Amino acid sequence: MSLRPVISAALLALFAAACQPADAPAAEAPAATETAAAPETAAPAGPSQLASFKTGQFENLDFDTELSIPTAKFVDAEGKEHSFADYAGKVVVYNIWAEWCGPCVEEMPSLARLQKSFAGKDVVVVPVAFGFGKGVTLETTLAKF
Fold first, then answer.
1. Candidate from 23-27, 80-84, 102-106 with smallest mean pLDDT
2. Is the pLDDT reported for residue 144 higher than 80?
3. What are the residue boundaries of the structural domains of the chain, listed by start?
4. SS3 112
């Protein structure tokens, strides 16, 4: 089973959320008497469901070509080595960022909230940092979040 459609849908949602204007009104939270739909009740979006998003620059998205999982290894904040194979069967939101990239740093709290909202489910957020400036470490950057 290919995770490409699910990952593409998750990335598309993140990109769409990141493109909202800063002065856009926040959506109101449901009233205490209302019940919000649980994420686990929604079926994963398949290629046919994502086709409606293929407008403008998104027309270049390809949901039908299966990709192999990258074999690259990366290290977490505690120094433990991981690879994508560790997350087989899970939806992986892979985010490449750098401490000198303002938008990257700005989206980190949102990614942390995303991970918390899917705690205990088969969804994992993997932010991979690179390119730290002089005198800046992963630890000092992560301490901000």
1. 23-27
2. no
3. 1-67, 69-145
4. helix
Q: How far apart are CA 79 and CA 81, in angstroms?
A: 6
Asked if 83 contacts 71 with a C-beta cutoff of 8 angstroms, the reply is: yes
Q: Which residues of 13-24 are buried (b: 16+ CB within 10 A; e: fewer)?
A: ebeeeeeeeeee
Instruction: Name the CATH code of domain 69-145 (choices 3.10.560.10, 3.40.190.170, 3.40.30.10, 3.40.630.30).
Output: 3.40.30.10
SS3 145: coil
Cα(44)–Cα(34) distance, rounded to whole angstroms?
A: 24
Q: Are strands 81-83 and 73-75 parallel, antiparallel or unpaired?
A: antiparallel
The residues, any chain, with a CB within 8 Å of residue 14's CB and separated by 6 or more, are 93, 107, 110, 114
**pLDDT value at residue 116:** 93
State the Rg of the chain over Cα. 17
The answer for residues whose C-beta is within 8 angstroms of residue 49's C-beta and 6 or more apart is: 9
CA within 13 Å, CB half, 104? 16
